Amino acid sequence: MKNLLLAGFVGAALTVSCSTAKTAQNNRAEFLQLKGDWEITSVNYDKNYKVKPFDEGADAQCFVGSHWRLIPNNWTGSYTLSGGGACPSVIQPIKFEVVNGSEFKFKKMLEGSKAKSVTEGYSLNLISQTADSFSLEQNVNSAGDNVRIIYNFSRTGMKN
Known about the structure:
By secondary structure, the protein is α+β, with helices and mostly antiparallel strands. It contains one helix and eight strands, in the order αββββββββ.
């Protein structure tokens, strides 16, 4: 009887671990589709609010046309704002991760800093994804109101 009970526990543990591993593999495969070069094609939000994402001091519309490079195998990347008009020119290295297959987190890496020493960052929800596009949602507080911002990305280069 003890052997039967033990076999049942081992079987249940293997079933749970295999299903967890398969879920993790599926999430990783989807996440690896983000590898490559991307451009923000639009930023959608309630225009009654002034939105300056990611502490760049730039209006959200300055991010339209920005270039993002994502390298999932070492969790690094960067974004570039090309500037012009009231928009600054910015090249910002980032360290990022996708948590639970749907939460895109990143932190800005300042020159000479190590990822583990940077404690603040940004959390966005991955709300849709195809091989050539994805969308991220960010909820920010503006004067006590929740403002929902949607960043729509399109692939500009093949997966590297």
